[in-house]
Amino acid sequence: MGTHMQYPLLPWPYPRWIAHRGAGKLAPENTLAAFRLGAAHGYRMFECDVKLSVDGVPFLLHDATLERTTNGQGLAGDMSMDRLCQLDAGSWHSSPFAAEPIPTLEALALHCQAQGWKLNIEIKPTPGQEAETGRRVALAAQALWTKAEVPPLLTSFQPDSLAAAQQAAPELPRGLLLDRRWEGGLDLAQRLQCVAMVCHHSLWTDHTVQQTHAAGLHTLAYTVNDSNTAQRLWALGMQSLITDQVDVFKPE
Predict the structure, then answer these.
(1) Does 25 fall in a domain?
(2) Total domains, the chain
């Protein structure tokens, strides 16, 4: 790892607890029903996954393909937004959510601002569309949150997506997602002028937290679903934890 500059850690404007994909697993992920349910449990910040339709509209979906969480088939990025909106993104979860649609980022933005919710947008590009997705999602977020006191946090595992987001809307805060490999991550986050590192909880130790904070970056962990892990991470000085267990952990 390279030599990191020392910076002060600025105030963190987001809540300590963030609901994963809306309401974790209690509702169909990345649907408005999930965000409403997470809010009913007291959560005021949510994580979601955003990619592009074939006609360039940012919409919410985790997987590259449609089969797991909708009644559609094939690559989601090959469909127009009109077609995507007609799919059932709720029945796979349970019958009370039948016919729940795939939301656009615009629809979620309206809900967030009406309800005072904060958002972590994970840029989740269809493979091969990393830069274009980062650019379009950043521009959309910039336009949709023009009057927001606290803008959405843009995160991605894809450096090309974050670099394109940085170029398109440099004032929006960004975070680098890491899963299992720490080496080089902090250097990359600094090059991308990120404000945070968002890592799998196993990557956070006294050493990595201290390194990250000394570099002026905030520390977030995913996906934290048991109390022992949560207590360990809070003791290390985490700024926020992302969880599925919205009915277990009480947001602060």
Answers:
(1) yes
(2) 1
Residue 155: phi, psi to the nearest 5? -130, 160
What pLDDT sits at residue 30? 98
Which CATH number does the domain housing residue 159 bear?
Answer: 3.20.20.190
Which structural domain, as residue segments, surrounds residue 26? 17-62+105-243
pLDDT in tens, 103-141: 999 999 999 999 999 999 999 999 999 999 999 999 999
Helix %, strand %, coil % of the chain (to 5): 35, 20, 50
Q: Which of 27, 23, 86 is nearest to 53 (CA)?
A: 86
In a domain, 70, yes or no: no
Active site residues: 20, 62
Using alpha carbons, list the distances in angstroms from residue 176 to 14, 122, 150, 197, 232. 16, 10, 19, 5, 22
